[in-house]
Request: fold
Amino acid sequence: MIQFEATQEQHEKVFGLFSKYREDRPKPYRNFDQFFATEETVLRRAVLLGSIPDISQRQLLFLGDSDLVSLAFCLLFKAGRVTVVDIDNRILRFIETVSQKEGLPIETFEHDLRNPLPKSEFKRYDIAFFDPPYTPEALNTWLIRAIESMITGGSDRKKKKLEVLSRKYYVLCYGYTDRETERGLKVQQVLTSLGLVIQEKIRDFNRYYGAESIGSKSDLFVLQPTPKVNIRKLDIARSQFYTGQKQNNPGSERG
Reply:
């Protein structure tokens, strides 16, 4: 069972960091579905990631990080490698600035995740964390990016060995209200189509400033790949990823 309850010392460190750089932090950008998670949520996410077995030897990838979980994680824990990929240059520059001032080992890479990640630079990651735009298209694509970063290179048979797959974790945040259970069903359908299994699901784990249409909260999923993982699945249509672009679906938000 993955743990996420923080100690008082961890609480003070993370809240202190957010307070220190509060005035310099970029404002949420609606076109990228940015609704910042609360500081308490960011802390819980960091502690959860830190509780993954052998985390100090793992390679950790953040597919988008407007919530700054990478900073909180590196303030509290060590990993073999921590990389943040984001389309928003403002977020990346802020993470770089704080990392340099605080001595935190975080790599950044500017990239539109609607497009495949460079194979030469993104491979053999062990853990991916992401809070994608809340559309099935975006969920599918973010999961494909996570798979690309973890299960590439070598023979297909070797990549799908259980001892290899059991070390891979996909930590996903996704929200829908109790009156939108069909959206929950779509999540399950996407995961099944990609050969992923839900190991844990924590309801209402994430809280946000804004995002009222999903009740300002979302669930957290801990996923793992199975031998059925679809590493050859082609990318889907590259439009209508961000809910702000969906003129006829104003109730769909990312936290």
User: Anything to note?
Assistant: The first helix runs from residue 8 to 20.
